[in-house]
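A quick aside before the break. I want you to see a complete sequence-to-structure record at least once, exactly as it would be stored in a machine-readable document. Don't worry about memorizing anything.
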Amino acid sequence: MNRVRRVKTILWAITALGAAAAAARMLFGLGATTNLSDGYPWGLWIGFDVMGGVALAAGGFVITATVYIFKREEFRPIVRPAVLTAFLGYGAVIIGLLFDLGLPWHIWRPMVNWQHHSVLFEVAWCVMLYTTVLALEFSPVPLESTSQYAKIRAFLLKIRLPLVIVGICLSTLHQSSIGSLFLIMPTKMHPLWYSPILPPLFFISAIGIGLLMVTLENLITAFIYKRPPETHLLEKLGKSARWVLLFYVALRIGDLIFRGKGAFLFQSGYYTVLFWSELTLAALLPAGLLFITSVRKSYLGYWIVSLAGVFGFILNRISVSGLAQIKPDAPFYMPAWSEFAVSAGVVSAAILAFLFAVENFKVWENPPKIENGFVTPEFSQDGWKVFGRQFRFDRSMVFVLMAGIGFASISNENAIKAGVDRVPVHQARGGDTLWIDGNVDGYGAIFTHHSHMQGCFRGAKCLDCHEAAPTFADGHIIGGSANDPTCSRCHHMNLPRDKNTACTNCHRDMYNPTDAFGHSWHSSAQGANLKCLDCHPKGEPKTVENAIKCHNCHNDLVPEGSTIEFTHYKAVSYVEAMHRLCIGCHYMKAEIVENPDLARCATCHPGQRSYVDAADIASKPHRLKSKRVVLPLLN
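That is the input. The structure line, written in tokens, reads:
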């Protein structure tokens, strides 16, 4: 069993590297470990881990439907491996999604926040339910090794047919609904990929990739355990797969021609090459080879067919989720090494779990040969000959070594800044109508100073909304009192000896919090030259909580009418400050004027650079005169 040990050692090494990258992602954030951006918010982890993973796991519902619904009993020997592969595949999808989510601890929210108009809500529920169904379908396999749970196993076997039917329905729903996610992108996806029939295209391709994935799983395990592949079953799967693949090709090409997009099939360029490469690997090459009798009876032929088909359909999912999307303003996206490491680590862990199940439960009718009471030791001392010398590796040592290499490869700079680049804010100044665009990228917000002071939006006055100042989760209360609708509603804190201090003086970075106090300046000889005891009581810990308050020395720091409370001296990022202040008021105002659109992004953000001349903004002081507004201001 040397081959098994060596394969496992390699898989443990890949898993360790992925675990290190995954830990870094959780510790330092997406920015430190990925090359994702606003232009490419969905990258490898969505295209491969989630969309590709769901498709690769389609063999479970295809084979169970074949055996239990269509009564093709000759395929029963591969039902258990197919269900196990599907279960582990969906587990890998969920784990991969955890790494991609900005706030992964909120993954449970679709269970309580029912956004029933959202396609993503339907996908989330279907994946959760189908994973549960797969767990129940496979549970009788490990339970049959003990009599302690015989009643539970007997009950699961009785409800197996209803479970299979529910599983087929759920899988059909979300395999197609993943395609529905992209129906809202007719102008952002290349015509060769966008189609109103994306849902059925995704479902049909899932059936094809399911048949090919079952074939590939059978070939891989046959190679690892040196057992003959079940070619008599693979041949029958191949005969079905070729017609599914041809139907997929005909539907996809026919749809393009029917909608008048056939000319794109023969244009030169990147998208055309990507389209034909993907379609050839996924369907044309496998289907063509499966019509050749000698290929269907060839061990090597099945390797070529299954590998080409699986790779082609994965490329299709990655293309739809990113490569085929038209983003002229976005920088080119190339996944970071850590993104590849996490994806490979998740896949390797799933394969190790599959091998564990094969060796410990009756997944196959003919399980692998057992040596000395077990298939392979947990920590093998087997090794390789390299340059004539025998090197022995303990898998635990390999895991620790590769994990160490992974942590050492994380960029120190990215780890320190937690993946967020420093972006100084460019201040908007002068005039009544301001173009607030701290990023100087042309995507800002229009702010009319006069209307916000006197009352705006259908004549509603400040006091109509500000019966109480808005309070935020971190303890800050922003804005003036209910009886004092003055500048302090926005300018809630001033610098010493200043009035109506600009936001950018404290919120100096677009995305990072900044120090509004300046401890180094206050304690330095060149600054205020204060001693520790001037601010911190003797014998007490030197913390913000027990320090004297700023307004004890600077009585003009908090303007009259402001109710801000100091809990710390870190000013939130400029983007967060603007959103807290503006959206909080707009939500209250929206209820009064009965206009829910008032609190939506498009109310302040035009969404188009044509509203202003970005080059003019960059070359002059950040001022927007009324005449430069292309469309009318909000009313």
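Two observations worth writing down. Confidence is low (pLDDT under 50) at residues 372-391, 456-485, 608-635. The longest strand covers residues 383-386. We'll return to this after the break.
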